[in-house]
Amino acid sequence: MEQHDKTLGLLSIARKAGKLQTGEDAVGTMTAEHRARLIVLASDAGAATLRRIRMQTEGTRQRFLVLNYDKLTLGAALGKASVAVAAFSDVSLALAFVRTLDQPDPALLEELGQRVARVKARADAGRHGKLRKS
Question: Is 13 exposed, middle or buried (0-12, 13-18, 19+ CB in 10 A)?
């Protein structure tokens, strides 16, 4: 399977799982609530969209990334006419997505990897730290 297919396929899987929101309004809400783990933009997203995302994520740990796919390609992968912006709400899926890119940013990979490790550690502590009822 080509890298291109894996990348777009993972976007589709995330959307079907309810872990990817599309559109400026939905992504803006996620960003305001600090639930966006990774925001992705189409290569031909408008300058105003890019500026809004940049302002919304400034000073937060939310990262964004401009993809090498245009709005029509992203839209086709997600079952819509076109998609300019989307956001992952799950850090593990965001990391898996970044790993499928042709040239992933090493700093972004490391940051997402650390965040996945923290989530896993919290989940393990929660499972093992609970008292069992007798």
Answer: middle
Query: CA–CA separation, 36 vs 21, rounded Å?
Result: 9
As a whole number of angstroms, the distance between CA 37 and CA 43 comes to: 19
Instruction: Domain ranges for the chain, please list them.
Output: 3-129
Question: Under CATH, domain 3-129 is a member of which superfamily?
Answer: Ribosomal protein L30/S12 (3.30.1330.30)
> Which pLDDT tens digits describe the chain residue by residue (134 residues)?
456 689 999 999 999 999 999 999 999 999 999 999 999 999 999 999 999 999 999 999 999 999 999 999 999 999 999 999 999 999 999 999 999 999 999 999 999 999 999 999 988 887 666 655 55
